[in-house]
Design brief:
The chain has helices at 3-80, 88-115, 126-147, 158-182, 196-222, and strands spanning 186-187, 190-191. With 223 residues, it is mainly alpha-helical. Strands 1-2 form a two-stranded antiparallel ribbon. Helix 1 (3-80) packs antiparallel against helix 4 (158-182), helix 2 runs antiparallel to helix 3 (126-147) and helix 4 runs antiparallel to helix 5.
């Protein structure tokens, strides 16, 4: 083999080795990059789950504290003012309110059962779909009774009832907003059970708004 041929052969070998080395370096760098991205995604997911659980625990603690406070208020009312007293008209209105709420629950469950006979909803989990039905039914009962002057008994103070409803809304909206900020209410395109606080909070917030509007209109009529 001539000297020129040997030089060309050496150059080709060196070029091939350099190409293989570059290819392997890029492949290894790509694997490292993908691994790093995957690890970071897992870390972010774990952080989100931890934040969501913290908010969930906070919601449970707030709920327990509120139940204790509500029980103390009810015991005090029973001791000082006696049981809630409603007249016959209010009792009839409350009965219709219960009926409308119950019928709403039946219709909602029938619709959900018909839509998802042999599968789960693809937009929410099982707890979320149930809490939505309960919330809608409770809201119908509350709004109907408030608007027809049957929500509050004769021995209850409108101001205390209004503050009580707002308190329940606040205790539920606070952890719900935290879950919303951490992005744990919707995960992988599905509404999760962590939506319960914010849904219940909005139910009581709407009830408080209707309660305020009804009393405002009554005050204007009396003027």
């Amino acid at each position: 083999m001539s000297a020129g041929a040997r030089v060309l052969l050496h150059a080709a070998v060196i070029q091939k080795i350099a190409f293989c080395k570059t290819y392997l370096t890029k492949s290894y760098s790509g694997i490292i990059l993908k691994k790093t991205i995957y690890i970071r995604a897992l870390e972010r997911r774990e952080e989100k789950e931890e934040d969501g659980m913290d908010a969930y625990r906070l919601g449970i603690i707030a709920g327990i504290l509120f139940v204790v406070a509500a029980a103390a208020v009810c015991i005090r009312k029973q001791t000082c003012n006696g049981p809630c007293r409603y007249d016959e008209r209010q009792e009839r209105v409350r009965g219709r309110g219960y009926k409308y709420g119950f019928l709403t629950m039946i219709i909602y469950n029938a619709l959900m059962g018909g839509m998802y006979l042999d599968t789960m909803p693809d937009w929410c989990d099982l707890f979320a779909v149930n809490i939505i039905g309960i919330a809608v039914s409770a809201l119908i009962f509350a709004v109907y009774c408030i608007w027809n002057d049957a929500y509050m008994s004769f021995n209850e103070s409108p101001r205390m009832v209004y503050l009580f409803i707002l308190g329940i809304a606040a205790f539920n909206l606070f952890p719900g907003i935290i879950n919303l900020m951490h992005g744990t209410i919707v995960e992988e395109g599905k509404l999760t059970f962590r939506c319960s606080n914010i849904i219940i909070g909005f139910v009581f917030l709407i009830s408080a708004a209707v309660f305020w509007l009804k009393n405002h209109l009554r005050a204007k009529e009396e003027e």
